[in-house]
Amino acid sequence: MGRAPCCDKANVKKGLWSPQEDAKLKSYIEQHGIGGSWISLPQKIGLRRCGKSCRLRWLNYLRPNLKHGEYSEEEDEIICRLYLAIGSRWSSIATQLPGRTDNDIKNYWNTRLKKKLLGKQQKHHRQARRDTAPRQEVTIQENGILPIDQLHLAWLTRMVKLQEAPARGMAEESSGTSTPEESMNWDEMIPFMHPDWAHGEQEIFTMQ
DNA sequence: AAAAGATGCAACCGCAAGGGA
DNA sequence: ATCCCTTGCGGTTGCATCTTT
Question: Which of A38, A165, A192, A207 could form a disulfide with A154 if both were Cys (CB 3.0 to 4.6 A apart)?
């Protein structure tokens, strides 16, 4: 006996949403709200979609006041700091970035920001960066917060440590499936980021 | 110009938590 | 107390587009 499916898979459309589907979902929710439950919503409006799919589409794309497009340096910095502090709790990170969704932030981190921090730039950028990159020097701003370059440095230092001793830190993640690169000891990283964070994330961020 | 590879992002999947019956 | 249903979350996948060879 498997788990009961949330919808009739055979009659449910998958894949990208059409503009017509978007319009239906958007106009219904704007007029009536979710109107009970996500599960029953697609039937009400005649969409051959799973309720979960509708929810995701609304939250990640159709919802008002969403920001699309480039992230600012400030947003980059917030994501980096929060990721280093609390790990991949994307929904919590998203609460600190109005207009951004957890899915969006997760994608941005996985596809761009992580590479940016790890310095995995495309080949043709490497030489240019080597030629122009200033020497890293550790300086702390007046407010005690490390500038983004220092975060980068802290991150890289940790990466090197893990590569030298891959076994260390592996047991820290409960999932047991993470790579050494992802198995970071956050307590060890926190003092690098913000002095106050060492006292516990709950004091700094309001978790839902 | 075309094929192969890399990248970015939307969407899916499965699990866990929460709440009501 | 426990069962069932719904929601929310994070990891992963699929595919369109871009870049490189």
Answer: A192
